[in-house]
Amino acid sequence: MTPELEQVTFRKSSATGPGAGGSRGQMWELVAVGGGVFAWAEVFPGSDQWGVRVQDRAPGVSDADLVKLVGKMLLWEVGCPADTVDIVLGRTHEHHTLVRVGGEYV
Question: How do residues 52-74 score in pLDDT, each as one tens digit?
Answer without folding.
Answer: 999 999 999 999 999 999 999 99
